[in-house]
Amino acid sequence: MVDPLRGVSLTPNGTITRIESETQSFQCSARSLPIASLSWRLNGSLLPASSLPVTTNDTITSFYTYTARKADHGKKLSCTAIHISASFTEDALLNVLYRPIVTVYPNFNPFRVLENTRNIQLACIVSDANPAVTSFKWNKNYSTISREANYTIPTVNRLHAGNYTCRADNSVGDSDLSAAIQLDVLYGAEVLTINKTEVAEGTQLLITCDGQSNPSVTDNDVIWTKQNNNTFSMKGKQLVVRNVNRVDSGTYMCSVMTELIPSIGQSLNVTMRTTVDVDVLYRPSVTIYPNYTMYNVIENTSSLKLRCTVVDANPAATSYRWYTNGSLIDGTAASFTVENVRRSHTGRYTCIATNNVGSSDLSAAVQLIVMCKFE
């Protein structure tokens, strides 16, 4: 007996809406004699049935359990019945709902921007979603800062630096967190003020020039020069002069040159400068006056004055010492006076001057010779 195939029944059919990862059971039946064969296809590709078909009298029934996948959205799940020379197919259109997928723009990482750049815009771009996105959320360092698709910074300052991420959501749920935009705000060096430096002659002069900048200041960015000295130039954060000499006193200039290279646009060279006064301190150098090697004086001369003259000192001399024949004598002023000169005053006179750096070397000696007066 032959009972021709008159059609196939797919339940459910039409448009089937499921959220990604949800399952849906389908049943396909056909009546005929002999029994028809049933097959499942997804957009034309053959699928295995979830179980063996069930036959009762002239009816065959097959079952298929579908798990919703985002990639299947818009595809057709079909069941086909074949009987002798006839075949029938019924379809179900898959409407798979899934959370949004987002990316961010600009897609530089880090995204380098010059300080004071205006109207920087970060965009949260939905590359895929079903259904459409209903809201957005921007975070900076995990704190919410906006609920718009685009986040605009009117004027960039260094406080805007940080990691920016976005999310989008629809009726299914929130997207995964986007990749982060690391906003890196570039600015030239703000050179720190350097106080006047005093250093003792013969020691080492060491001054550091530094400042806040992004990128950070390196030794290659810093050059030291000296006012009124076109030949002096030293590279590096530290100005180092070993065995410093009084001629090293003066005004030094630290120049910090930083190249700022943004991700978009032209690079910018920024130079900042500061100066520092260096004062080299040194012991006095002295000479004695009168500057006779042999100073002949007649006995009983009412008074004789010797002067310890400071040729150079920094700072000024604060005290003096006088010596006769190498022995300390009573006298702490720049001048030493001998009253009523006697033969006992004969000898070699020298002096020393002292400041807060130290004492001078002994002056050249004056040999005082007291001559007798014959009557």
TrEMBL record:
<dbReference type="Pfam" id="PF13895">
    <property type="entry name" value="Ig_2"/>
</dbReference>
<keyword id="KW-0393">Immunoglobulin domain</keyword>
<dbReference type="InterPro" id="IPR051275">
    <property type="entry name" value="Cell_adhesion_signaling"/>
</dbReference>
<dbReference type="InterPro" id="IPR013783">
    <property type="entry name" value="Ig-like_fold"/>
</dbReference>
<dbReference type="GO" id="GO:0005886">
    <property type="term" value="C:plasma membrane"/>
</dbReference>
<dbReference type="InterPro" id="IPR013162">
    <property type="entry name" value="CD80_C2-set"/>
</dbReference>
<feature type="domain" description="Ig-like">
    <location>
        <begin position="4"/>
        <end position="95"/>
    </location>
</feature>
<protein>
    <recommendedName>
        <fullName>Ig-like domain-containing protein</fullName>
    </recommendedName>
</protein>
<dbReference type="InterPro" id="IPR036179">
    <property type="entry name" value="Ig-like_dom_sf"/>
</dbReference>
<dbReference type="InterPro" id="IPR003599">
    <property type="entry name" value="Ig_sub"/>
</dbReference>
<dbReference type="GO" id="GO:0005911">
    <property type="term" value="C:cell-cell junction"/>
</dbReference>
<keyword id="KW-1015">Disulfide bond</keyword>
<feature type="domain" description="Ig-like">
    <location>
        <begin position="100"/>
        <end position="182"/>
    </location>
</feature>
<feature type="domain" description="Ig-like">
    <location>
        <begin position="189"/>
        <end position="271"/>
    </location>
</feature>
<feature type="domain" description="Ig-like">
    <location>
        <begin position="284"/>
        <end position="367"/>
    </location>
</feature>
<dbReference type="GO" id="GO:0098609">
    <property type="term" value="P:cell-cell adhesion"/>
</dbReference>
<dbReference type="InterPro" id="IPR003598">
    <property type="entry name" value="Ig_sub2"/>
</dbReference>
<keyword id="KW-0325">Glycoprotein</keyword>
<keyword id="KW-0472">Membrane</keyword>
<dbReference type="GO" id="GO:0050839">
    <property type="term" value="F:cell adhesion molecule binding"/>
</dbReference>
<dbReference type="Pfam" id="PF13927">
    <property type="entry name" value="Ig_3"/>
</dbReference>
<dbReference type="InterPro" id="IPR007110">
    <property type="entry name" value="Ig-like_dom"/>
</dbReference>
<dbReference type="Pfam" id="PF08205">
    <property type="entry name" value="C2-set_2"/>
</dbReference>
